[in-house]
Amino acid sequence: MTTVLVSIELTPSGDVRPGLADLVAHARSIGSPVGVVTVAPGDSASVTERLGAFGLAEVLVAESAAVGAADAEPRVRALVAAAAARNPTAVLIANTVRGRDVAARVAVRLDAGLLLDIVGLHAEGKRVVGEHSVFGGAYLTASTAGDRMTVATVREGSTGEQPSPVTASASALEIDDTTVPTAVITEATEHARRSERPELRTAERVVSGGRAVGSAEGFELVERLADALGAAVGASRAAVDAGYISQDHQVGQTGVSVSPELYIALGISGAIQHRAGMQTAKTIVAVNKDETAPIFEIADFGVVGDIFTVVPALIAEVEARR
Amino acid sequence: MTGSYGADETSVELATGLREFFNEHCGLDRVRAAWSDGSLDLALWGEVAALGFTGALASEEVGGLGVQPEDLVLAIEEIGYSGASLPLVDTAAVVVPIIERYGSAEQRASFLPGLISGERIAASTVMFGGDRAMFAAEADVLLLERDDCLHLLDRRQFSTVEVHSPDPASRLARVSVESSVLSDATRLAAGATDDARGRAVWAASALLNGVSRRMLEMTVDHAKTREQFGRAIGSFQAVKHLIADAWVAMESSRPCAWYAAHACSQGLADAAAAASVAKASASDAARVVGDSALQVHGGIGFTWEHPLHFWMKRGKLLEHAYGSRGFHLRSLGAAMRDDQQGSDAVFPGL
Amino acid sequence: MKIITLVKQVPDTWSERRLDPETGRVDRAVSEAVIDEISERAIEAALALKDADKSTTVTLLTMGPAGALDALRKGLSMGADDAVHIRDDALQGADVTITSRVIAAALLRRPWDLVIAGNESTDGRGGVLPAMLAERLGVASATGLDSFELTGGAAGGDLVGRRSADGVDEVLRLGFPSVVSITERMPDARFPNFRGILGAKKKPVEVLTAADLGLTDLHPAVSVVSVAERPPRQAGTRIIDDGSAAAALADFFASRRLI
Amino acid sequence: MSALTETTLDVATWRDEVRGWLKAHLPADLTEPGALTGPEALHRRRAWERELYDGGYAAIHWPKEYGGRGMGAAHRMIFQEEYERIGAPPRLNIQGLMLVGPTLMEHGTDAQRQRWLDAILRCEQVWCQGFSEPDAGSDLASLRTAARIEGDRYIINGQKIWTSGATYADWMFALVRTNPEAPKHRGISAVLIDMRTPGISVRPIRQINGRGTFSEVFFDNVEVPVANTIGAVDDGWNVAMGALLLERGIGRRSYVKYVPLLRTLSSLTTSTGAGRDGAALEELGTHVMQVSKYRHHVGRTLAESSNGAFGPEASLNKLFWSEMEAALYESGMKLLNDLSALSDDSAVLDGYGRWEAEYWHARATRIFAGSNQIQKNIIAERVLGLPKEKR
């Protein structure tokens, strides 16, 4: 079996991003995954323990005093060292803002081919082929780096697979500490989770509100329906621009792309940029006063009506039928 | 400057800049707001002035941009298209260049800076229709036509009484001036009247063509999306021909205004006739386009809530102001009648 | 300070977008090409620094076909000083590896302190170019910044940026020369005024080919092997609320086992 | 640079050159009314075309390699304006120069170009266009004239109609059906036919204005070499569509042609006393406006085409001038109604009869070269993007 390196992204508090499950699943489809992680000196054991839960049996751990201070550089150096040691067919990295920085630099340093935002991975002979969902799922494309090593960024939530836990064993990875210019992180704060709601990017259900919600207070209605259905909360760009909700809830071309089982659009007209971020949802429901709203063109079930009368009644119905 | 037909790069670039600005800053809600409260949107006025529009035709020596009328004619179309309810055209295309050309040193010094910067607003009775002017009540400066002469007045020198306007967002007022006010000190130099008339007419024509262009665009969009008998109504030949006729009227009118601006800028012999051609054809086009637009929109176009009527009524106002179709056609007929020996007043060089 | 802002022309996102079924690249023929909104914000960020310190120069750099000159003109009319247009038919459809090599080569031709780019273009969504450039140039980078400021003046100071991404708020500090990318949370671009539009034509635009940059062996690292279009979604049931819509919706959820 | 402002020396010089040459070479009596009637007319027109050729003005828009001057639309329009201004006769070989020549340049073989282009330029061959048929008017693709291939020859049977100049043309540029099985747009070929071939008979159609400028042409087992096909066999529709765009496009007539008509209307208005009447002045003014609009429309189209943005104005062009022309003669007829007693008074007008004939002819212009209703469909569908009608 060929080796596939899987880059592990830790939050500032040392948590593993849940999207690692997707990376491991994709890695398994072409080879055997080997985790690569950088931690502060002394943290190797504790992180290794937690990685088994993601199905990673083997982990290369680099300890570096620069972790948490230097931006991408420690992870880049660990992956380059791991690649030199293990000669992998591919290096998989989460398609997050930080992950893409790591991928960009690793690809240049290894002279590898870079596949971006993949949702699937398979081998064709010796070639590694990545699959991409383009323009909100309107197209599926496949691309390959041919004979080169592949560095790929992986869309979190693209497999939905639950990993089978194993016991992870760690080996130490030596990385040098030569100084190259890098941005220094002087402060890092994790967003407080405001509720027990699922994370938007990987949620199975999403309830989103648009400009027609009218106010930040009005957005409570969106949140109440989300809670009744156990859904994550999303928003259109118009709602974000109007200041009803923070930007990390934005669904669409310049926000998060989601592909849930159920997507409910409340007071969202469905501009093409919004549709690009949600039209691969399995079931789409829309409530909008404007019968000409383009969202109705793609909705499995559309209600022409006022969200302020329909949604409270719907919450009551859902709770009554529970 | 060679852009007699508006295809000149500068003209297109200024118009594109203005269109992008209006797309962002003058959406339907802002157009609608001007209709409901009827007050001048001073914030929007300030923003458009800051773009350089009000001083565009003034020379660089007085703080303007020194562009020629043919460089601005497409931008004026965009104002009509946008639905912005502002006295921009009178200020930028007529009052500012006329003061610079025909004003005394004192008049230039006291009026031009504020008008170019947008701090002051101008109204003009030139060719508008009697002693009425658009936004005269809101104006700080009035260009008044009286006995074939032009006078430049500041706010203390004239009073206004509001009169009915078919377009509530383009407020009209009748101006009155004590005869003692008018003097050599207020009068502009000889030649100002004809020049100002020509400018007012070509600029109004371009503005009106922009209004027609918006109505036609709304109509085409509606015909593509509105379905009856299971298909888009734009697929019916009867509807197509209504719209095609409207398009021909509008597209053949636009270059007339472009040429009139060029003839004005170059002082060509047929400048006055060109302005009349521009205004008569723009009025024709607005009527044909407006009628087709209303017919194709059907019932929805007849509601206050649908935006079509904003442009339709502005079109109706402009159709009659600055010399009606009939007025300009009679001028052209008379010019042709008197042109037997081949003067250059109508068709130069022939 | 000398700033270079990267500019990209993209298909208008307000129109339908298509992929060319042969190449898998964005079909640029179907929609009007416009300057990418995020590029406009990047230019705005550079011009804001120029507003604060008049000695700052802002150079625009783009790689694209002849029509991309329109995007440069837009930026010049906003207030940038000059522009570089890498224009070469051989670069049509270049992948990010080639693009980063070409732009890095162009950046090496002139002195600069800061490169500002958008975090991701609306047509590519790769979001890796700024970091690839930084890597090729051997400089620090900070991507996805929602805001940034300069500390300590033009000489010897730092750039301090904030980003909020993937559930973490961070403050990053880096020196010069460096590459940053900004998000759409940065301020909206200014509108070019008429004076800017009139002046833009007189500003210099340097046109370069790949050969001018000494690059001849440009082979893509990645090739597209297939493109499939998904059938468009069909509209389903639509009802007009007469008071019973909530119940009908709940029935619909139940029928799909969503409640 | 727009054509009509003449701010560059080049364009202004060109106008002077054309004006000077025409003044020096056009026989004065050719511009007189009635000069082109009678048996000598055709001879005189051919001689004039030869004069134009010798002066280098036969086809200024043709590329230099084919004997033209390679001039663009703006220069061409100036030539046309000056040509109309001096009142020179209508071009005899318009189909050859505007339609067949450019089509051969685009779709013909080298041998075909050598055989025909120079002869067209010298007016040694006058051409007519054989597109319309009794059952294929606006719906041109329904044409039925059949060309069966036998060896290296077509055997052609069928009928063309509304063919201008068929009575004196040497050659016809015809569309014929070569594959009756194919979908109707696909089985058509563009074929060049020598009008002297046995089996061709021409019958002038007497029109409502009493004239016979259009003819019916009948084909009875007419043998034509397959080598006379332009473009591929069965690909004639594509060849013809390019040709029709040329026919509707800019450059064939300028506003100048209508100025004398305006002057005539103006004198009629004055001589009847209608000139004191506001309504009559308004009507005259309407025509001044329309002719000016046509002028500026053409100017705009030229300006845009020189910027490389040649638009769909071709349809607007034909629609506009044909309606304008019809309305101009309509006004004249109204004024002449009051003047019927003076209908032969050439001091007022060159004969009521001639005006009436032109009035009727101006109604034909709304029909030929794609009826105005077809033009409106083209505008609606191709310019404005309205959906096609279900047929």
Q: Provide the gyration radius of chain B in Å.
A: 20 Å
Alpha-carbon distance between the termini of chain A? 48 Å
- How many beta-strand segments of chain A? 15
How much beta of chain B, percentage-wise? 5-15%
| Structural class determined from secondary elements of chain A | alpha/beta
The helical percent of chain B reads 55-70%
CATH topology term of the largest domain in chain A:
Rossmann fold
Can you describe this structure in just a few lines?
The complex is a heterotetramer of chains A (322), B (350), C (259) and D (391). Chain A has 322 residues and is of the alpha/beta class.
Task: Explain what you see.
The complex is a heterotetramer of chains A (322), B (350), C (259) and D (391). Chain A has 322 residues and is an alpha/beta fold. Chain A has 2 domains: 170 residues, Rossmann fold (3-Layer(aba) Sandwich), CATH 3.40.50.620; 116 residues, Rossmann fold, CATH 3.40.50. The mean pLDDT of chain A is 89. In chain C, the strands form 3 sheets. Chain C has a 7-stranded parallel sheet, with helices on both faces. A 3-stranded antiparallel sheet of chain C has the order 8-9-10, with no helix packed on it. Chain C has a two-stranded antiparallel ribbon with strand order 2-3. In chain C, helix 2 packs across helix 5 and helix 3 packs across helix 4. Chain C is globular. The mean pLDDT of chain C is 89. Chain D is globular and about 70 Å long. The longest helix of chain D is centred in the last third of the chain and has 29 residues. Chain D starts with 8 loop residues before the first helix and ends in an 8-residue tail after the last helix. At the A-C interface, helix 4, strand 5, strand 7, strand 10 and strand 14 of A face helix 3, helix 4, strand 7, strand 9 and strand 10 of C. Chain A: Heterodimer of an alpha and a beta subunit.
Give the secondary structure arrangement, pairings included.
The complex is a heterotetramer of chains A (322), B (350), C (259) and D (391).
Chain B: H1 9-25, H2 28-37, H3 42-51, H4 69-82, H5 88-102, H6 105-117, E1 122-124, E2 132-134, E3 141-146, E4 149-154, E5 159-163, E6 172-176, H7 192-225, E7 227-228, E8 231-232, H8 237-266, H9 271-297, H10 308-320, H11 325-337
Parallel strand pairs in B: 1-3
Antiparallel strand pairs in B: 2-6, 3-4, 5-6, 7-8
Chain C: E1 2-7, E2 9-11, E3 33-35, H1 37-52, E4 57-63, H2 69-78, E5 82-86, H3 96-107, E6 114-118, H4 129-137, E7 140-145, E8 147-151, E9 158-165, E10 168-174, E11 178-182, H5 194-200, E12 205-208, E13 223-229, E14 237-240, H6 245-255
Parallel strand pairs in C: 1-4, 1-6, 4-5, 5-12, 6-11, 7-11
Antiparallel strand pairs in C: 2-3, 8-9, 9-10
Chain D: H1 9-25, H2 41-55, H3 73-86, H4 94-107, H5 110-121, E1 127-130, E2 146-150, E3 153-164, E4 171-177, E5 188-194, E6 200-205, E7 214-225, E8 229-230, H6 236-248, H7 259-271, H8 278-306, H9 313-337, H10 352-364, H11 372-383
Parallel strand pairs in D: 1-4
Antiparallel strand pairs in D: 2-3, 3-7, 4-5, 5-8, 6-7
Domain Acyl-CoA dehydrogenase/oxidase C-terminal (chain B): 199-335
Pfam families (chain B): Acyl-CoA_dh_1 (PF00441), Acyl-CoA_dh_N (PF02771)
Family (chain B): Belongs to the acyl-CoA dehydrogenase family.
